[in-house]
Design a protein that fits this description.
Order of helices and strands: EEEEHEHEHEHHEEHEEHE
Number of domains: 2
Number of helices: 7
Structural class: alpha/beta
Radius of gyration: 20 Å
Mean pLDDT: 86
Distance between the termini: 21 Å
Strand order of the largest sheet: 3-4-5-6-7-8-10-12
Helix content: 25-40%
Number of strands: 12
Length: 314
Amino acid sequence: MSVGLNRKIVHTPSIQSPAVGPVIKKKPAVSFHQQPVRETAFDRPRDLLGNRFVYAVISSRARGLTLGVNVNPDKQCNFDCAYCEVDRRRPAAEAKLDVDVMALELRKSIGFIQDGKLAQWPAYHSLPNELLQLRQVALSGDGEPTLAVNFPDVVQAVVRERALHGFFKIVLITNGTGLDRPAVLRGVEFLTRSDEIWIKLDGGTQAFIDKVNRPDVSLEKILANILLVGRLRPIVIQSLFPAIHGDEPPPEEIREFARRLKELKAGGAQISLVQIYSAARPGVNADWGHLPLRVLSEIAHIVRQTTGLRAEVF
């Protein structure tokens, strides 16, 4: 397969693909600030019932409706991702998640969804019913959830609400940096084997991680934490590749990314899925864009070929 990474994403004449044969027209990455308004099932407002901590989102990776818990309303994060949509120049509306208030909001929101009332809202009434069924509750939000001082309390409260309303999957979405904290490991123990942990890995070298994620920790620590939890339970790797300044990821970087996954697998990490995707909503920085499906598919192909892991494009 001819790998087309490390190309500047610009308007060019049609090129002939040596691997496939048909003529392919390269599509440029477009800044979200240049995109026309469009309607898709996965662009829906997050506001729900005037909640402070619980929001609704139609997620492509969840394949439907997710209730998100904003574990970090204070916007605390030790990454400063180039593609992040959270504007940290504005002060946070809340200093800390109030667990009791969050639990009440979650209870009301689940009841609202189970009663079929979400479909009556203008932003949702045109969607098929299958997209309005609750798929999961995600611990995520405006920062890194494992940094929250009350993380175990948040997990335990969500688990209690599940006991009241019937089973739903709980998904922890994390950059992995706090997974070795004792309090976080205690919180993870509340999760069942049917729940999931999605851990971010956006590259395979420190230099690329520094460019895209701008973390305050090393790639080595991130990989060690992935391995720590991955040896305990199955995990999902979530990998977002943006176009930065119009550039696709360098081919060697994608090969290094696949090698890191292979090393994690060899070390005993139980990786059930690798999610390959690009940003879906406008970020604070305008110097990036959404990668074409062609590029994301090439990355997924390299992951499968190198690691034997299941990789899907979103």
